[in-house]
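ok so i was messing around last nite and threw this chain in just to see what happens. nothing serious, just curious
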Amino acid sequence: MLVIFAFGLITPGGASEGDVARKILDVTGVRGGLVVHLNCGDGKLTAALHADGRCIVYGLDTRRENVDQARKYISSRGIYGKVSADVFHGRQIPLIDDTVNLVIAEDIGDIPMSEVLRVLCPNGTAYVRKGGRWHKTVKDRPEELDDWT
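result:
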């Protein structure tokens, strides 16, 4: 079972990428781990998601020129490595199963939600904009999964 919530737009006029990133992290409850920003564009929000240093952020975009721009911006902030960007074909997320804590997509493009859920770890969160509203989806944690100390 998945938990799904719908929210209004989180990007008030004139809000900085830092404000938007903080709002996303607050709303989703993600405090660290791997964050994937789908269709990352210029990389400004991608970089801002690393603001507190607790997340490794991976921006993906189908357009080479967007990735080049994102890489340039991320490098200018001195955080490349902790934040990176790459080109992908837009249908499959190039990561192994159950590794991502948060997937963010203002435009999910041709990626099916099943693909997003595939890469999310148990209790991982997808925050996807559809029809002008943000939807938060939390992947179930299997009962048979043990707790580690």
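not much to say yet. The chain has four helices and seven strands.
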